[in-house]
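R.M. (postdoc): so does anyone remember the format we settled on? I'll just put the structure tokens first.
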């Protein structure tokens, strides 16, 4: 009786693991249905060890029977395991010659509308990021790309849920990237300052940004004139840093609940900026201080660098019960170079706004879509 009871609970435990009640991370392998690797657990019975696996894209469950050297998949309708032979896909990705990095690549067509967890190596350091390909991408036309950076201590996966631009990417047709920051003192971060001084970070995050852009562009048709960066909090700081150091690559940047450090490098090219910041932010104060520029100083800085008139056009808006002051900085040709959204009473968050039907994500994209490295983009 005790033996039967043990077998019963062992199998229940097995089923719980197979059907995902315990969260287990998987690693990619090279098959055309996008395998995810072995569970770090093997079920043993008298006959053999059973290696259970779960596929990422098709939702099927798989196992490998050692004694038969055979793969099986679980047919949900018949509740039976059926033998099959997995087909190995051909990796057509090109190797990067100018960057010592390697990226795990998957079948391009099957990845439409899915999130790919990718890794590359930059200066000997393994770096991770999430890549989303819009559902209607067919490879015939170069698309813009948006990088969205999480805040200090955050993760790419959590930020993707909070600042979820996937539906927007499908509707507006752009590639979407959520990178993962490296650790500093046990917390993930973005290095938003030049080396030296009080900067304790040695992370080459600008190199990571360039490596991601190079790697993604080797597999997909990316429009190099429409590369955009935005971020929350520390991710916003880093977006400003990219605007200062990589204005030859970045067409526009956005910051939510972030600001710019004093001494941020000056851009070599005009770089349009959109800022969304709350007046009650106690983490990154709206009024600046402690080496941070105030929100108004940031907007004026970029208006000046972009050749816009430093006296903005003010528009008063509402989002529910929240009042919002929009500052628009234009040049003499009425091209908008800087937009600032002052959220009265707003805290340190990625804002859930509704401004004339536009949320935070849509506001950022609407601004980005007007700019490229070639200059203003005319509306079609």
């Amino acid at each position: 009786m005790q033996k039967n009871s043990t077998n019963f609970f062992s199998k229940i435990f097995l089923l719980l693991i197979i059907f995902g009640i315990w969260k287990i991370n998987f690693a990619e392998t090279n098959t055309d249905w996008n395998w995810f690797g072995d569970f770090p657990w093997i079920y043993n019975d008298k006959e053999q060890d059973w290696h259970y696996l779960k596929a990422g894209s098709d939702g099927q469950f798989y196992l490998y029977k050692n004694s038969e050297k055979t793969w099986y998949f679980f047919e949900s309708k018949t509740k039976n395991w059926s033998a099959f032979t997995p087909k190995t896909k051909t990796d057509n990705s090109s190797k990067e010659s100018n960057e010592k990095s390697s990226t795990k690549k998957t079948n391009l067509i099957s990845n439409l509308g899915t999130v790919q967890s990718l890794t590359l190596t930059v200066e000997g350091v393994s770096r991770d990021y999430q890549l989303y390909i819009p559902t209607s991408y067919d490879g015939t036309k170069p698309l813009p790309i948006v990088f969205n950076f999480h805040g200090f201590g955050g993760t790419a996966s959590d930020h993707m849920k909070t600042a979820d631009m996937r539906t927007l990417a499908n509707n507006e047709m752009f590639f979407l990237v959520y990178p993962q920051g490296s650790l500093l003192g046990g917390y993930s971060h973005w290095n938003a300052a030049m080396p030296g001084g009080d900067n304790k970070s040695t992370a080459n995050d600008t190199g990571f940004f360039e490596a991601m852009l190079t790697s993604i562009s080797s597999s997909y048709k990316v429009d190099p004139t429409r590369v955009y960066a935005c971020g929350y909090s520390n991710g916003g700081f880093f977006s400003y840093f990219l605007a200062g150091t990589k204005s030859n690559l970045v067409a526009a940047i956005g910051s939510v609940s972030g600001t710019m450090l004093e001494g941020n490098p000056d851009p070599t090219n005009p770089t349009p900026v959109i800022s969304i910041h709350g007046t009650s932010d106690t983490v990154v104060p709206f009024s600046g201080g402690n080496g941070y520029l105030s929100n108004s100083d940031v907007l004026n800085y970029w208006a000046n660098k972009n050749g816009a008139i430093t006296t903005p056009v003010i528009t008063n808006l509402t989002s529910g019960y929240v009042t919002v002051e929009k500052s628009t900085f234009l040049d003499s040709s009425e091209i908008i170079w800087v937009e600032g959204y002052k959220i009265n009473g707003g805290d340190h968050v990625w804002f859930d706004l509704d401004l004339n039907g536009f949320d935070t994500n849509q506001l950022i994209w609407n601004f980005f879509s007007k700019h490229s490295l070639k200059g203003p983009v005319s509306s079609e």
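R.M.: ...and that's the designed sequence above, right after the tokens. Also worth knowing: The mean pLDDT is 81. Residues 2-18 form the longest helix (17 residues).
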